[in-house]
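Pinned message: reference record for GTP 3',8-cyclase
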Amino acid sequence: MLTSTLLPATITPAATLIDQHGRPLEYVRLAVTDRCNLRCFYCMPEQGIQYMPKNELLSYEEMLRLVGLLAGLGVRKVRLTGGEPFVRRDLVPFMERLAALPGIDDLSLTTNGVLTAPHVPALARMGVKAVNLSLDTLDRERFFQITRRDELPRVMETFHALLEAGIQVKINAVVMDGRNIEDLVPLATLSRDLPVDVRFIEEMPFNGGSHVATPASLPWHHGRIRQHLENHFGALAPVATEAGATASEYRIAGHRGTVGIIAAYSRTFCGTCNRLRLTAEGGIKTCLYDQGVLDVRALLRGGASDADVVEALANAFRYRAANGFEAESQRPLHQLNFESMATIGG
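Predicted structure (tokens):
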């Protein structure tokens, strides 16, 4: 268990916080770093991005304090993201402390898999329920073209290690016109014999200036992805999902696992969104498409009390944009292309 300095006695679990659109707060995506060991085309330019100085990133102690306070507001699920979480030192001991926080009963992780395999036994021991594995192709040459690194064998080592450990594996594949369309069917075929969920994600414009992304340049929307899969596998049977799910999930006849489609650019799931994002430098985003609504790092390092932080967090969540289009329209600058997914929480 954590020390009392990280579990304030004045904060007790509360009824779930509801925003002005009737959506609950139950889930936080926690970015532990903005650094990454790949250079994926859809995330950043080949030369990388300007990373935050280390002293400007939240410390593990600060993250633990914030998640403890968020648990008091109704958060029960935490997903660690980045950047790539495993490029930050001492991640596993931090996760063990995070898993021990009262009120947090679902701890999961998104990773590119390059550094993950040696840590899989520890993830299983601490009760990690699921791992989202970023995998856009099963072809080694195309993997190199997309990520600019020759690391597919290590990613596949992680994939098999997770399956052997009995951890639920969700593959995240970004669908990119002209780059990996031929990989959609092979990736979906993994669900035939293996208990995996293969989710196809609409490409988003957060690429750190790698290229200009507009609706016209992102033609693989959720409807087209589904049609492409049905052209090969036949009709996809919808599967019921939990409240707040971002993926529309489907079962292919005769397959053990499922396939899913995440309309991340079309933003069809905003009406049930139950999450907020905490960026590595301590920014709160109540929508992927907003420009940040609260600087909690400034509160923590400015001596704010737990009650002050809780009030600020609650207010940030209560007054949210109705959807990603409204959040985008409220930005002073609408140029999403200059942001990288690595800096806003994977």
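Pinned by admin. Summary line: The CA atoms of residues 134 and 172 lie 5 Å apart.
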